[in-house]
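Case study 2.
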Amino acid sequence: MKVWSRGIARVTVLVAAAALLMLALAACGGGGNNNEGNGGGNAPAGAITVKMTEFKFDPSTIEAKTGEITFNLVNDGTVEHDMHIEIPGNPQTSELVAPGKSATFTVTINEAGEYQFWCTVPGHRESGMEGTLKVEG
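Prediction:
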């Protein structure tokens, strides 16, 4: 009978260890969204890093050249944020970026000028979360 009890005890320990291992792996697993990394460590080369918090963009004035412009949006805030750029005839809005996450946002602007951008989350623009994109030819 003692041999049988030791066998049951070993199986119980193995099942418990397997369950703990599965929980640890699940906690480390990533989601399938584009909110990569934290702190913007996955920014593509040449991207303009823009930090988003309650309720501002840093920097709030951005300078770029005409053509394709890539932003590395880093949410250092405690709620979701996005970036909307008012391009005449073709306004563009990034995905919502979760707190502590970052995302890449690319737009094409072929005309020099000043373009307004803001966060579309209700109340954020009204609270000052907006800025100016100055595009030069």
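The two ends are 86 Å apart (CA to CA).
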